[in-house]
Amino acid sequence: MSHEDIMLTVTFRGKSHTVFLPNDAPLSALHSRLELLTSVPPSLQKLIYRGKKFQHRQDDSDPEPTIAQAGLRDGIKVQMLGSTVEELGQLNAADSAHQKKEQILRERALKPQVKLRSTGSSSTSSHQYCFHRIEALTHLPRPETATECLTTLSKDPAVLHVMQKHRFSVGLLTELAPHEHPGLLGLNVGSGDTIKLRIRLDTYDGFRPYLEVRRVLCHELAHNVWGEHNNDFKELNSQLNREVAEFEAAARAGTHGLSDLGDTYQPSSDGEVEALVRVLGGTDLRGNDTTEEHRIRALEAATARLRNEELERSCGTSGPQKQSG
Question: pTM value?
Answer without folding.
Answer: 0.45
